[in-house]
Structure formats: C-alpha cells, structure tokens
Amino acid sequence: xxxxxxxxxxxxxxxxxxxxxxxxGTWSRPTAMPVDAIRNGDEFVIALDLPGVDPDAIDxxxxxxxxxxxxxxxxxxxxxxxxxxxxxxxxxxxSRQLFLGDALDTDRIDxxxxxxxxxxxxxxxxxxKPRKVNVVARQSGEQKVITG
Length: 148
Prior knowledge:
Strand order of the largest sheet: 1-6-5-4
Low-confidence stretches: 24-30
Mean pLDDT: 81
Number of strands: 10
Strand content: 35-45%
CATH architecture: Sandwich
Shape: elongated
Order of helices and strands: EHEEEEEEEEE
Structural class: mainly beta
Helix content: under 10%
Oligomer: single chain
Largest sheet: 4 strands, antiparallel
Number of helices: 1
CATH class: Mainly Beta
C-alpha cells in the first residue's frame, strides 16, 4: 500500500540524524517526523509524531499518489526578558513525503490531530478489495451458480 522510493531523502535524513549536519553543511539537531503505517482491515492508517506543533501549522497535500505533510514548530513566546539557557527542540518547517499505492482512495483521506500525533486514515479503494467470484457449473444443458 505504501511505496517507499525516496532514496536521497532517506540518505540525507540518516546523515542528519547520525552526524547532525544538514546537506548544506550547517550543523543542527535532527528534524525527524517519525511515521507508522499500518493496514487495518479496509483502511490504511498513517501516524506521524508532531509534538509541539499547532494544528493550524499542519498542511497536507496529495498529488499523483504522493502524500506530503508539512508542519511548522514555532518557538513559544516567553516575553522579552527571557534568556535561553538550553535549546534542544528543533524549530522550523518539517516535511515528509510518502508515496501511496494505487490501491488507496486518496479522495477520502481523513486527518485527525490529537496529543501531538497526526493520524491519517485512507480507505482501501473498492477496486482493490478482495472479492468473491461466482463459478457457473454447466451440466447437461442446465446452469447452477456456485458461490465461492
């Protein structure tokens, strides 16, 4: 259902996680958007971790079976007298692309955001669901339908 074919993005993401460097050579913290993808009956469920992201800062697009999730984590406003002592939480825009198979009905995606987790539910397309085929048995001129 989910096709993973973004090798350069994955290499860059792994390098960033391992070495802390971005592709441009600047140093930063990892900016991962962890994802789980699960088939649950007649739907495909994708869960993405986006802690600290305002729901208004999440953008989801689907174009030609490519699902793109963009989210922006903004700094919290502590006032003008605040002095940063430690900062480890990555800020800025995060993006993740997932290549979806043709068996998913991308016109009926449902998105819900709760406790920092974005959950997308994508129904399996009717044409991709398993179905029974009736067998017609012909014996001496009469027909019987045998359901499978």
